[in-house]
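Annex B, item 7. Sequence and structure tokens for protein A, then protein B.
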Amino acid sequence: MKNKYLVIYDELARKIQEGEYPARTILPSENELTETYQTSRETIRKALNLLAQKGLIQKIRGKGSIVLDLKKLQFPISGLVSFKELAGQMGSKAETAVEKFTLGLPDEEIVKQLNVNKEEPIWSVTRVRKIDGEKIILDKDHLVEKYVPGLTKEVCAQSIFDFIEGQLGRKISFAKKEFTVEEPSKEDRTYLDMEGFHAIVVVKNYIYFDDATLFQFTESRHRPDKFRFVDFARRMDRVT
């Protein structure tokens, strides 16, 4: 016989998936669910914890369990796609606000990340990405000026990739990515809609031209409820 918390989980999950509990609404409280299902509070908590683990709800202190949007944006881990292209594929309303745009000498961290000398001019751009009105991504871009001449704030508000490939005629070929989950920084909370969220997904991108020249380093900070990071992996034949 199935554990009661799994039965409750299945029913709540079905109601979320069928829209009975729409995205961004609050589930009934633990006390209400305890009465509805005639069970203990511990059983309800187990069901809610499983819903959270499966990405169906976000438990927010002082507010309850908010239903997440199941139509998450899919970021391909192995692919290389711009924010503009991604939003277009998903049919979402996307906006970009350029908060900072400068050309100057790099600090020690950027010298290390881009493998340049400290006298090499670098474009530094901070952009806030909005999907359907919510500020959910903070992009911190650093580009080697000699490889991306003529960059403007207006270009950054649209698509840097489009500018590089369309205007400069360079081929963007591949990227190395590093993923971590961290506590939100003060900067995250300043620029993004982070109320109730206690983690942020950080993706460090090292982006290369087709001649293997590293020209861009981007630290992209994502609010976790809106994204699903996906990949395709094939098991290699074993050598015997």
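Protein B:
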Amino acid sequence: MSGRRSRSVGDIAVELGFKNVYNLEGGWKAADTIPHQPYAKNHSPWVHTIFEKETETAQYVVTDIETREAYIIDPVLDYDPFSSCVHPSTAKQIIEFVRKHKLNITKIIDTHVHADHLSAANYLKMHLDSKPEFWIGKNVTKVQDVFSKKYNFPKNDFRANGEQFDRLIDEGDTWTLGGNIQCDALFTPGHTPACVSYRIGDAGFVGDTLFMPDIGTARCDFPGGSVEDMYKSIHKIYDHWIDDTRIYVGHDYPPSESGRDYDVMTTLDAHKRFNKMINTHVSFDKYVSMRKERDASLKAPRFIHPSLQTNLRGGTLPSREQPADENEDPASVGRFFKIPVRWKD
């Protein structure tokens, strides 16, 4: 297009809040003279965000507009620790959105076993007419093995083999959303050993691997976490995905001094240039030092124990306990989350 029209479009984009907008004089002939990345079948899905502020979690509905096929990524099941009550208020918002837009949900994807919120995947499976599959990375079994021992799950009630999920995703798996939106998966361990980042068309969903550039990355101090693995995983994303990939993060915690509102998306190029912890100019040793120093100051997530004990089970709450008296009605005994206790002088 001519310079006049592209400049007008650029001005409108800036007014709408888009960043990194540039006008190239000379049209398509000039575009051929500058470095560019080839088209890679990265059709754009429609990404709708539902932000859950209690745990500051971004949930996504990712849709192929032509076919109305859609995925739900990292849905939240609400939990009130004071009343010990689990409720689906946020999940119902997702269902309402799906029904309003007549979407066909075929997959629910958790990027990892969340330690800060309960997964609503099982609830959504039961309440959506399409009965979608629940997907997670195959290394979930490593997390199940560690924490089933930590919480002393009864062997007759839980097996650490991933059977609680419909499909265990492997590195390099590919599939298609709708007619032409290409999808693939990268193993990105670091935050947990089971973290997977998903590319759906030109949109990347990285869970707790990357946060917004002014925050950096997720913590790496959970059992099975690794700062060294996190550095390698993020550089794997940098190397495998093209720069204009839209990166959608799992959480946002706006720094108080920034004055900005919640934000969950920027480009991969912005991370490579500006991520405060792991842009392309940060060395391995520097990142490891910064991440370990930051992790040493962090407390455990508020809902870590209810979250893990639910999410390891595929979003299912613990089974009802058996009554001590065999003559007692089993329905009279409730479900319980285990909370580890330590003595500290």
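Comment on protein B: Residues 1-36 form one domain.
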